[in-house]
Amino acid sequence: MRKTYKIVDENGFHARPANDLVMAANRFLDTEIFAEVRNRKATLHSILGVLSLHVQFGDQFTIIANGEQEVEATRALEEAIFNLKIGELME
What we know:
Layout: E1 2-7, H1 15-25, E2 31-37, E3 40-43, H2 47-52, E4 60-67, H3 70-84, E5 87-89
Antiparallel strand pairs: 1-4, 1-5, 2-3, 2-4
């Protein structure tokens, strides 16, 4: 399952949103969850992986989830993105 968001936070991702996304992803350890930004890919199960993407304002941030709970994981991550007000779903 894939979903793409446009990053609307002027600061992009810093430690707090990265941590919140990792915490949401880690509720689904049986599901592979990756983020892709500017042709770079990292696991969402690792804060260092998320921070290594250097997500900036205006970036397209794609979540890729594969596994038993991919739908639930994607929903949880989307909820975190919306609650943090860092991204909007792209159509």
